[in-house]
Amino acid sequence: MQTSAILSVLGEDRVGIVAAVSAALAETGTNIEDIRQTILSGVFSMTMLVTVDEERTSFEGVQARLAEVSESLSMQITLQREDVFRFMHRV
Amino acid sequence: MLQISPEEIAETLTMITQQHLDIRTVTLGLSLGGCAADDVATVAARVYEKVSTAAQRLVPVAEAIEREYGIPIINKRIAVSAISELVCGSGHDLTPIAVAMDRAAREVGVDFIGGFSALVHKGIGAGDRMLIDSIPAALASTERVCSSVNVASTRAGINMDAVLRMAEITLETAALTAEHDSIGCAKLVVFCNMVEDNPFMAGAVHGSGEADAVINVGISGPGVVRAVVESLPKDADLTTVAEAIKATSFKITRAGELVAREAARRLGVEMGIVDLSLAPTPAEGDSVAAIIEAIGVKRCGGPGTTTALALLNDAVKKGGAMGTSSIGGLSGAFIPVSEDANMVRAVRDGALTLEKLEAMTSVCSVGLDMIAIPGDTAVETIATIMSDAYAIGVINSKTTATRLIPAIGKVAGDTVDFGGLLGAAPVMNVSQWAGTVLARRGGRFPAPLSSLRN
Asked: Do residue B254 and residue A33 have CB atoms under 8 angstroms apart?
């Protein structure tokens, strides 16, 4: 099952954030569809639209892998199914 | 392509992480058809079997949805058919059925199970009488069982005999659970115009007009609404305030709608309703009273409170109505005193009284809720505090309910503490001028003229 999800990364800017996050996604077979990234007053903020391939790695499995990245980078990383945002922000 | 802007994503994350956006409850409504029997032990065994089997996957499914969508689901609960309809004979103690419900609830991991209930708005049947008589022992000997009794309706009027009996039962329940601040009464609601699809406790019952199994969802989010109102300029007019609440309510409701659909799909049961009630928690800021104060009342309970609450309640419904086509349950702001930190503060400050709470009942949902009163309050006083709330419901064709807690051994100003979501509250002052004679007259308050609508 292919599941669309939104990945949000927030925290202090440093070298290697995009590399670490995208490596974790590649490992789990999660495809990046779109990326937006900015730095505001030293705060790194990245939003990705990704597709989780649940036949390869379960949603929970991807979340667990990202939790490791979150801990090693001390960044806030969340992965949520995309429909929650569509439901809340579109009529 | 990313169709949602990073700002919208950030808004949702802020709502969840900082403003207490959550789904208050995912409640599985379960029919107990087939569990009726001649003897109480058989009913209890059948109820245990049915609940523990049918609700087995509820908690894991709700937890998976919670993880995948990133929205906390605070409570997972079960509402069953009114137990009074399953029993035969007379004079039996129905506590064993409550104990069976409690055991099943613990086993499947839900925090509350509702349905130890009876509907007696027009008359009390043999099964109803057994159930009502069993309430104090049932609530004292179980942890997760909730009980409710419907004593009035717009179509039938108020059964004043039942009201007086429920006042007695409230006092007996308080006495039996006195060691724990009379917590039994926190699990007992007496209704006027009870609904069949309420996902919230303590009043959830699976109505006889419902399918075998349904998922009903109760939204939450007073913290989110408060944050939105507080972010408006102090001179924003009330139309602007209503508009902001409406837009927020839409978003909260959509989260509820999504969770309801997904939970029903994964469990293979029907999606029932989304209940648009704003339900406070004792957490700082997650408060309906705080919204009233943010709208511009110095302290909840002061003049302007009813206006602000009416505006809030109406705007929540208007926004929610766009968010789901399955509105149901109680769908009105809750004002449970002990569960709302700003309401507790308002009582302590002398701003909020029982009489003002009664006025507030007329413009929102379940009214005299989680109110601690002195333990020596006379039964007639309790009965007439209750009947005043039901009169509002009967005449205005709306649900009203009471969850009064006579705090045994305590007087006005003392504190009761239930812990968790039930919170803590000061014991409130009760009028000494109650309708003692009225309470003892009994009989039926006739159905109002407004009930003749055909």
From this structure: no
